[in-house]
């Protein structure tokens, strides 16, 4: 793992199939959900639906949103906001791809750590 003050290397892009997702535990903090869209873009959100904390990582990815597996709210992967009639927002973790590896922003990842 590369040490970088701003970004955390969480492994190769190929770990995620298109429309796939995985979770990343953060010690002492909130779990992160990482998603790959059909077009290959990678997004990271806190793994907690703004409705009742459903595990977004287990939802279906469609375009740039994920549908919560519990009550089908659709959450934007870009803004973390609930779409349509629903209201709520989940933290978005900035992501960058460099040389085929995924990096997530350290400060946002650790924001929930006590
Ligand atoms: S917990 Fe996600 S829609 Fe209810």
What features would you describe in this structure?
There is one protein chain. The chain has a single domain (7-109), classed as 3-layer Sandwich (Rieske Iron-sulfur Protein), CATH 2.102.10.10. The two termini are 24 Å apart. The chain has 114 residues and is mainly β. The chain has one helix at 106-109, and strands spanning 7-12, 21-24, 32-36, 42-46, 60-62, 65-67, 74-76, 92-93, 95-98, 101-105. It has one helix and ten strands, in the order E-E-E-E-E-E-E-E-E-E-H. Strand 9 (95-98) and strand 10 (101-105) form a beta hairpin. It is 4% helix and 35% strand. FE2/S2 (inorganic) cluster binds at residues 49, 51-52, 54, 68, 70-71, 73. FE2/S2 (inorganic) cluster binds next to loops.
List how many beta strands DSSP finds.
10
The geometry reads as globular
* Relevant CATH superfamily: Rieske [2Fe-2S] iron-sulphur domain
Q: CATH top level?
A: Mainly Beta
Helix content: under 10%
> Beta fraction of the residues?
35-45%
Biggest pleated sheet: 4 strands, antiparallel
For the terminal residues, how far apart are their CA atoms? 24 Å
The overall number of domains is 1
Radius of gyration: 13 Å
Which class do the helix and strand fractions yield? mainly beta
């Amino acid at each position: 793992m590369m040490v970088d003050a701003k970004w955390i290397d969480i492994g190769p892009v190929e770990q995620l199939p298109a429309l796939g997702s995985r979770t990343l535990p953060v010690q002492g903090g909130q779990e992160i959900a990482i998603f790959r869209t059909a077009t290959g873009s990678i997004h990271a959100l806190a793994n907690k639906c703004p409705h009742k904390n459903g595990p977004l990582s287990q939802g279906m990815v469609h375009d740039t949103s994920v549908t919560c597996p519990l009550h089908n709210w659709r959450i934007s992967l870009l803004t973390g906001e609930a779409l349509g009639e629903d209201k709520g927002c989940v933290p978005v973790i900035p992501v960058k791809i460099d040389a085929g590896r995924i990096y997530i922003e350290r400060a946002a990842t650790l924001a929930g750590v006590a």
